[in-house]
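Example S7 (structure tokens).
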């Protein structure tokens, strides 16, 4: 399984930096860093966390906010992947990384009625919108690589309206068991173009 995850991530990384990213030294730096990164055997979530961060870098390279997400089934197989698509190719306010991964899965597997044993890994702690979607989806566990003190909602899940708070007790929301270096990488990648894209949002309601 580790080789499959590594091969999948390497294939994605190979294509990064050919267009938008080729003009961004930070994208190229993190591409090389992720290519050289070795999974830590003491961190059980490291491979999946790494792949979500690879997708986050792909997201930045495509002109979007740096968040990537993957859905893993009970056997540990990656069955759906996504990254933020809010800004490019055209504006879609709903297409956060978690949303894209879930949309793909639900469209391709309409007959699966329970996500017991499934885990969604996301490079950044989920925002309020995505948190509600994840609760609705029934995904067994939702693990983030990096916390998000500005926009993350997992740390404030107890402040949700009672219906959503009660439903969330069926699930696990927590930080992934990955290296601190990988967590820092996820945050740094998200920050590459965060302010630039936030300005786009501000102008939409100006």
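Recovered sequence:
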């Amino acid at each position: 399984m580790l080789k499959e995850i590594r091969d999948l991530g390497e294939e994605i990384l190979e294509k990064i930096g050919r267009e938008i990213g080729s003009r961004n030294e930070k994208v190229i730096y993190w591409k090389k860093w992720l290519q050289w990164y070795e999974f830590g055997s003491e961190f059980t979530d490291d491979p999946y966390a790494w792949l979500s961060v690879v997708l986050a870098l792909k997201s930045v390279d495509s002109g979007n906010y740096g968040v990537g997400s993957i859905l893993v089934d009970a056997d540990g197989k990656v069955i759906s992947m996504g990254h933020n698509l809010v800004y490019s190719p055209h504006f879609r306010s709903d297409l956060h990384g978690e949303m894209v991964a879930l949309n793909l899965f639900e469209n391709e597997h309409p007959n699966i009625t329970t996500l017991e044993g499934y885990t969604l890994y996301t490079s950044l702690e989920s925002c309020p919108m995505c948190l509600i979607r994840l609760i609705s989806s029934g995904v067994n566990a939702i693990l983030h690589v990096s916390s998000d003190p500005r926009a993350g909602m997992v740390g404030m899940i107890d402040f949700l309206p009672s219906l959503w708070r009660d439903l969330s007790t069926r699930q696990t929301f927590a930080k992934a068991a990955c290296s601190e270096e990988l967590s820092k990488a996820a945050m740094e990648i998200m920050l590459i173009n965060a302010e630039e894209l936030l300005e786009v949002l501000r102008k939409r309601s100006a």
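Notes on this example. The longest strand covers residues 78-83.
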